[in-house]
UniProtKB/TrEMBL annotation:
<comment type="similarity">
    <text>Belongs to the metallo-dependent hydrolases superfamily. HutI family.</text>
</comment>
<dbReference type="InterPro" id="IPR011059">
    <property type="entry name" value="Metal-dep_hydrolase_composite"/>
</dbReference>
<feature type="domain" description="Amidohydrolase-related">
    <location>
        <begin position="69"/>
        <end position="410"/>
    </location>
</feature>
<dbReference type="Pfam" id="PF01979">
    <property type="entry name" value="Amidohydro_1"/>
</dbReference>
<keyword id="KW-0862">Zinc</keyword>
<feature type="binding site">
    <location>
        <position position="80"/>
    </location>
    <ligand>
        <name>Zn(2+)</name>
    </ligand>
</feature>
<feature type="binding site">
    <location>
        <position position="327"/>
    </location>
    <ligand>
        <name>4-imidazolone-5-propanoate</name>
    </ligand>
</feature>
<keyword id="KW-0963">Cytoplasm</keyword>
<dbReference type="InterPro" id="IPR032466">
    <property type="entry name" value="Metal_Hydrolase"/>
</dbReference>
<keyword id="KW-0408">Iron</keyword>
<feature type="binding site">
    <location>
        <position position="322"/>
    </location>
    <ligand>
        <name>Fe(3+)</name>
    </ligand>
</feature>
<feature type="binding site">
    <location>
        <position position="78"/>
    </location>
    <ligand>
        <name>Fe(3+)</name>
    </ligand>
</feature>
<feature type="binding site">
    <location>
        <position position="322"/>
    </location>
    <ligand>
        <name>Zn(2+)</name>
    </ligand>
</feature>
<feature type="binding site">
    <location>
        <position position="87"/>
    </location>
    <ligand>
        <name>4-imidazolone-5-propanoate</name>
    </ligand>
</feature>
<feature type="binding site">
    <location>
        <position position="150"/>
    </location>
    <ligand>
        <name>N-formimidoyl-L-glutamate</name>
    </ligand>
</feature>
<feature type="binding site">
    <location>
        <position position="324"/>
    </location>
    <ligand>
        <name>N-formimidoyl-L-glutamate</name>
    </ligand>
</feature>
<protein>
    <recommendedName>
        <fullName>Imidazolonepropionase</fullName>
        <ecNumber>3.5.2.7</ecNumber>
    </recommendedName>
</protein>
Length: 411
């Protein structure tokens, strides 16, 4: 099936020889073609160019994009969309004055979601998660990383990852899966955290690796969750199973998780709301992508990742949603991009680079996703008629997406 998009007002993120990631120094540059065409064939970007040089093409379905912007679909490199139920009650508890940490200490938080998930059948978990995936596809997400971490038993962690794999099979979206057994300490292990880490290392990791359920490994490296030493033990063990880290660090405290991530060649270090100068230095010269999750800061009323500072230090930056029931019950990348501009002082060019090519890097798919490049996957956003691309984050909260093409399929 061929699709020919014509009269595109602006075709964004056109890169002939795309880099794997875009550094802070280059993030202000967003290559584009005004008045463009683009041909989709067999799920790939077959060709594109200036309308002035539109070649003879036969046998296609035409899509007129007059007044509209076309760009690569969002690459959301950090989500927890496989979960059961919701935590609306904790949301109300926070409004009434309890903190996120206080709720977790009372047995709410991640272990609350784990209890719900353990009691939910795989079929039901799939149907709840599929609804969320369908929602974010319509919002322009075509590639998504999905973590486990609400199972906290070998069986329930595997169940979550099987659901994520099934989503990948049934939808055109590109899915990467991450094993996050070290998301919280289950209640029954509260007095013996080492025994839970033993379970992760000796039972969960080998089984999940043997069944090829995960591409990456994650740890919530934070006060009250997993220390730097415990994180290192898990990453060391994961290395034996060839699982590359993508870790939760510096959400509430800077305890050295970033240097650990870099030491273990993490593909990304995510959250980064609290950053020291030492953390920034640790990232310099590394292959590790810093990932900011501004919707989480918004929902929990915690500091925003100092994105401006990271970019000004020359570091690349990616943006993701963190879609999960506790800290970010939203998977809207358009809101993430707008919030990064409004609250983190990223320019529209920087935010779009962060949510496309750098997002793709943070999930290991920048060879196939994240830019308008011949041969890359045809996953595209077609906007409504808008005056310019800066208007997208400017009009935060409005849905300016007309249609979405995922893997060559108009959804
Ligand atoms: O990325 N911070 C750790 N994990 C998730 C939230 C977990 C939850 O509250 O359910 C996050 O914010
Ligand atoms: Fe997260």
């Amino acid at each position: 099936m061929k699709l020919l998009l014509t009269n595109i007002k602006t075709l964004l993120q056109t890169r002939e020889n795309p880099p794997k990631k875009v550094s802070g120094k280059e993030m202000g540059n967003l290559p584009k073609i005004e008045n463009a065409w683009l041909l989709v064939e067999n799920g790939k970007i077959a060709d594109y160019g200036d309308m002035k040089n539109l070649p003879e093409i036969e046998g296609f379905k035409p899509i007129d994009c007059t007044g509209k912007i076309v760009m690569p679909a969002w690459c959301d490199s950090h989500t927890h969309i496989v979960y059961a139920g919701n935590r609306e009650q904790e949301f109300v508890d926070r409004i009434k004055g309890l903190s996120y940490q206080e709720i977790a200490e009372k047995g709410g938080g991640i272990v609350n979601s784990a209890k719900k998930l353990q009691e939910t059948s795989e079929k039901e978990l799939y149907s709840q998660s599929a609804k969320r995936l369908e929602e974010v596809m319509k919002l322009g997400t075509a590639a998504i990383e999905i973590k486990s971490g609400y199972g906290l038993t070998t069986e329930a962690e595997s169940k979550m990852l099987r659901v994520a794999k099934k989503l990948e099979k049934h939808y055109p979206v590109t899915v990467k899966t991450t094993f996050l057994g070290a998301h919280a300490v289950p209640t029954e292990y509260k007095e013996n955290k080492t025994a839970y880490i033993d379970l992760i290392c000796n039972d969960m990791l080998p089984k999940i690796a043997a069944e090829k359920l995960a591409d990456y490994v994650d740890v919530f490296c934070e006060v009250g969750y997993f220390s730097v030493e415990e994180t290192e033990r898990i990453l060391e063990e994961a290395q034996k199973h060839k699982l590359i880290p993508k870790i939760h660090v510096n959400q509430f405290n800077a305890i050295g998780g970033i240097a650990t991530g870099v030491k273990y060649n993490a593909l990304s270090v995510d959250h980064l709301e609290v950053m020291t100068d030492k953390d920034i230095e640790a990232l310099k010269g590394s292959e590790t992508m810093p990932v900011a999750l501004p919707s989480c800061s918004y929902f929990l009323s915690i500091p925003y990742t100092p994105g401006r500072k990271l970019i000004d230090a020359g570091l690349p930056l990616a943006l993701a949603t963190d879609y999960n029931p506790g800290s970010t019950p939203s998977g809207n990348m358009n809101f993430v991009v707008a919030t990064a501009c409004i609250k983190m002082r990223l320019t529209p060019e920087e935010a779009i680079n962060a949510a496309t090519i750098n997002g793709a890097y943070a999930m290991g798919i920048s060879d196939t996703h994240g830019s308008i490049t011949k041969g890359k996957t045809a996953s595209l956003i077609i906007t409504k008629e808008v005056p310019s691309y800066g208007y997208l984050p400017y009009s935060f909260g409005s849905n300016l997406i007309d249609s979405v093409i995922i893997n060559g399929e108009l959804i």
